[in-house]
Specification:
Radius of gyration: 14 Å
Helix content: 40-55%
Low-confidence stretches: none
Mean pLDDT: 96
Order of helices and strands: EHEHEHEHEHH
Largest sheet: 5 strands, parallel
Shape: globular
Number of helices: 6
Distance between the termini: 30 Å
Strand order of the largest sheet: 2-1-3-5-4
Length: about 150
């Protein structure tokens, strides 16, 4: 799996720890797309575009709360970013919603929870034809049809 990761300057330390965790666990090849820009929307859009174009399979974004990067990433056509704060939702983001970008806060959750959320996000897969398929199809179709 190819994973793109980025953050704002507030989350640099959290991002570096998460990159090491992903590599140590062997979840895939992780590419650091940056963290120097204080305008978190710029890195969120960069990661979202890389995932939406299929250059990367999944994306991870971190800012102070995770809210800003999730809002910004979801403006990119083909990007489906989910704000993660608990294990159940992290699993459901993949299993039920087919999210392709995980967003998390550097100030709102600790490293251990961020690792657990990342593991849940990266090790679960959406199952085509599941009961959530019509719901996912509805927002994917809307996304594809918008100008």
């Amino acid at each position: 799996m190819k994973i793109a990761i980025g953050c704002d300057p507030n989350a640099q330390e959290a991002k570096e720890a998460l990159i090491q965790f992903i590599r140590d666990k062997g979840f895939g090849d992780v590419a650091d797309l940056g963290s120097d820009d204080p305008i978190y929307a710029n890195i969120a859009i960069k990661v979202a575009e890389a995932v939406a174009s299929k250059e990367y399979d999944r994306g991870i974004l971190i800012c102070g709360t995770g809210l800003g990067v999730s809002i910004a990433a979801n403006k990119v056509k083909g990007a489906y970013a989910a704000l993660l704060s608990d294990i159940y939702s992290a699993k459901r983001a993949r299993l039920s919603n087919d999210a392709n970008i995980a967003c998390m806060g550097a100030f709102t959750i600790g490293n251990k929870l961020r690792e657990e959320l990342t593991e849940a996000f990266l090790t679960n897969e959406f199952e085509p034809g599941c009961s959530s398929q019509p719901k996912v199809d509805a927002y994917v179709t809307y996304d594809q049809d918008r100008g």
